């Protein structure tokens, strides 16, 4: 990207970092806690006439109680394909159907599974921290290029670098807070 001012660099960094935070929140939604949530099945793809289709596009997902998710297929002929997709999604779920409705009981998490999920959460959070650092690096390089091209003064560059660092620190704090809240949710015994 070609920037002409420090403000443009800062605005770009801020918007890219916010997208990273949104990405973390989205990715964390599919990590299990002790409660049932339709987000748990968000990444499940059903073989719908040869096309991998998101589960929410082949049926209605519902959480009738904290330990159960139901899937009401719009086309009852694919009920077995939906059930198979949930089983194969490596979520540790065992769905059952009565011909019209798929019931997915959410078993309580044992201590070992909770620890695995927390480890997975830490990995996801770290990926997003790296993404924020990459945005910082790109922004700092853009500021250095502006200085080299004599588009800004050294003082402007220093202020820009400080501002980008403040943005980075703030975003890291938000990422850590979101990950901590999710970790607490996973480890909380219901």
Helix and strand topology:
Blueprint: H1 6-29, E1 45-48, E2 51-54, E3 59-65, E4 68-73, H2 79-88, E5 96-97, E6 102-105, H3 111-148, H4 154-187
Antiparallel strand pairs: 1-2, 3-4, 4-6, 5-6
How would you sum up this structure in a few lines?
The protein is an alpha+beta fold. The protein has helices spanning 6-29, 79-88, 111-148, 154-187; strands at 45-48, 51-54, 59-65, 68-73, 96-97, 102-105.
3D structure, described in words:
- This protein has helices at residues 6-29, 79-88, 111-148, 154-187, and strands spanning 45-48, 51-54, 59-65, 68-73, 96-97, 102-105.
- It has 190 residues and is an alpha+beta fold.
- It is 56% helix and 14% strand.
- It folds into two domains: 6-30 and 110-187, Ribosome-recycling factor (Topoisomerase I, Chain A, domain 4), CATH 1.10.132.20; 38-105, 2-Layer Sandwich (Gyrase A, domain 2).
- It is built from four helices and six strands; from the N terminus they run H-E-E-E-E-H-E-E-H-H.
- The chain has a four-stranded antiparallel β-sheet, covered by helices on one side. Strands 1-2 form a two-stranded antiparallel sheet.
